[in-house]
Design goal:
Blueprint: H1 2-17, H2 25-47, H3 52-67, H4 69-72, H5 74-77, H6 86-100, H7 108-126, H8 131-139
Helix pairs in contact: 2-3
Length: about 150
């Protein structure tokens, strides 16, 4: 399954490089059918799994893959959606590390303020804008991101 999904991401990136905005409906149908085939193979393989706990966890994973299929394949239908959530995890890591420091956040309002500020800075960085100028514009009540 992992190789299949990575292959889809590679195909999507290649299509994006060529200037396309989406897969054809025929391609999407093929990908969806292959996903279903891999799930079916997983259920078959699960029948031979030894160990009650391992079998139960594998089956739970397969059930989640079926239940959330639309979410797992969303990156194929909407090219704005990233294949992985690495950027989200990276953004949360900074806040979590701050929380772990001695003292952490003294109040919920302090934590909220920190998260809003860092969210603004990360957005400005990702858009390739100057952080200092953006903060100055914000303080001057001028629109920063339009």
């Amino acid at each position: 399954m992992e190789m299949f999904l990575r292959g889809l991401d590679h195909a999507r990136n290649e299509l994006k490089r060529q200037g396309a905005a989406a897969f054809s409906s025929r391609q999407l149908e093929r990908f969806s059918l292959r996903y279903d085939e891999l799930i079916a193979q997983g259920y078959e393989a699960n029948k031979g799994t030894r160990g009650r706990l391992a079998k139960k966890e594998e089956k739970a994973l397969l059930n989640r893959l079926v239940k959330y299929k639309a979410n797992h394949l969303l990156f194929l239908y909407d090219f704005r959606v990233h294949y992985s959530n690495n950027m989200s995890e990276k953004d949360l890591r900074m806040c979590k590390n701050r929380d772990k420091m001695a003292g952490g956040f003294r109040s919920a309002s302090g934590r909220d303020m920190y998260c809003r500020i860092m969210s603004f800075i990360e957005t400005v960085k990702r858009r390739g804008m100057n952080i200092y100028q953006s903060i100055m514009a914000l303080m001057s009540d001028r629109p920063v991101i339009q």
